Amino acid sequence: MSLTTTGPTSRVYFSQRLRLHYVDWGNPDAPPLLLLHGGRDHCRNWDWVAEDLRKDWHIIAPDLRGHGDSQWSADGNYRMDSYIYDLHQLIHQQHLAPVSIVAHSLGGNIALRYTGLYPETVQQLVAIEGLGPSPRSVAKRAHLTLVDRMRTWVDEQRALAGRLPRRYASIEEALGRMQEQNSHLTPERARHLTQHGVNQNEDGSYSWKFDNYVRSWAPYDMGYDEIEKLWERITCPTMLIYGRESWASNPEGDGRLAHFNTAQVVSVEGAGHWVQHDQLEVFLGHVRRFLVQN
């Protein structure tokens, strides 16, 4: 699928004093559809999805704090509660509820927790590999004491403080890194994602837009049993999408699906973690049918 020359409009909103960016694909009289990207990604990774759905939906795609063209957190903290608040502020300020949401990875995790907190505001939800760590990973982390987690986090923060954003001599060099990360990407998509994912530095080099501190997770979060209770509070139709070639654990096999009342799981052949890129047409087929049926 090729992109048209008419792209979205950039807009901003404010949350916890941060200037956050989103793109609006127009068609304001249509039902609202939010597209949430994953970690170290940006809102323009949804362009092919937005192009296909924009005639039937009012599509808004935000850049998470510390990502894309949104402002970085001054203290380098990127906690889930702040991400959830940002999403709630966007929906509240733009009067989007009841809204449909399609979200990937970190964005999916945010959207699922938000929907459990405010089930009345979400009409339909698609989460692409968004449930977070597998039960096995959670069990392994549970053996770590708070002291262990805090000391690890402190070490990570100090290391990130000394880590300068990587500089690439050219767009081509950054493009090569993008292709290393996801071998499923076509050259056209990889270039598009790279061009929208970098800033040019004063010396002419290029660096990724995201803040390096988004790599570090807080030493404490909601308890896993509390997250499961949020999943149980979700009342809207929910589709959980997984790539068969992904590293992510499928909730249909690891038991997490049992915590959902209205969810279905879809597995996509020939796709890794970025299902919406790896098998775009198949992904769009599933999403379109789901949105129309519900």
From the 3D structure, determine the CATH topology of the domain at 9-138 and 223-293: Rossmann fold
- Specify the number of helices: 11
Please state how the strands of the largest beta sheet are arranged side by side: 1-2-4-3-5-6-9-10
CATH superfamily annotation of the domain at 9-138 and 223-293: Alpha/Beta hydrolase fold, catalytic domain
Strand percent estimate: 15-25%
- The CATH class assignment of the domain at 9-138 and 223-293 is Alpha Beta
N/C terminus separation: 26 Å
Instruction: Say how many strands there are.
Output: 10
Structural class: alpha/beta
The helix fraction, in percent, is 25-40%
Low-confidence stretches: none
Overall pLDDT level: 96
Radius of gyration: 19 Å
CATH architecture of the domain at 9-138 and 223-293: 3-Layer(aba) Sandwich
From N to C, what is the helix and strand string? EEEHEHEHEHHHHEEHEHEHH
Give the overall shape, derived from the CA principal axes: globular
Report a brief summary of the structure.
The chain is an alpha/beta fold and 294 residues long. The chain has eleven helices and ten strands. Helix 9 links the parallel strand 9 and strand 10.
